[in-house]
């Protein structure tokens, strides 16, 4: 297992109009936590990458899964947690932060 966790912080129902009528849609605010402990420096992932590099790659993929209007906060968890991206729905900015 690589060190990445995704936590829903807030969900909100909203009514949206689609081509087939009105639907209820959930909006999520999530926090993505990246483990930056020493064990994440181990080079045991496919392709010779570190666990942290693999977690960063997976984090960028999760950013792409955000639906329109959903918000993500990214926090690196090490000896001192570091918020590397405050709540944002800007996928390019979130990917850049990772």
Explain what this protein looks like in three dimensions.
The chain is an alpha+beta fold and 98 residues long. 21% of the residues lie in helices and 45% in strands. It has 2 helices and 4 strands; from the N terminus they run E-E-H-E-E-H. The chain has helices at residues 51-64, 91-97, and strands at residues 4-18, 21-35, 71-77, 82-88. A 4-stranded mixed beta sheet has the order 1-2-3-4. A hairpin with a 2-residue loop joins strand 1 (4-18) and strand 2. The longest helix is centred in the middle third of the chain and has 14 residues, at 51-64. The protein is elongated. The model has no long low-confidence stretch (mean pLDDT 80).
């Amino acid at each position: 297992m690589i060190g990445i966790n995704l936590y829903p912080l807030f969900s909100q129902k909203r009514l949206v109009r689609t081509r087939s009528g009105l639907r209820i849609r959930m909006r999520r605010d999530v926090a993505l936590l990246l483990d930056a402990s020493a064990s994440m420096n181990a080079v045991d992932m496919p392709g010779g990458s570190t666990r942290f590099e693999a977690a960063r790659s997976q984090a960028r993929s999760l950013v792409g899964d955000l639906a329109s209007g959903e918000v993500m906060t990214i926090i690196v968890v090490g000896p001192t947690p570091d918020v590397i991206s405050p709540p944002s729905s800007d996928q390019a900015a979130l990917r850049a932060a990772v």
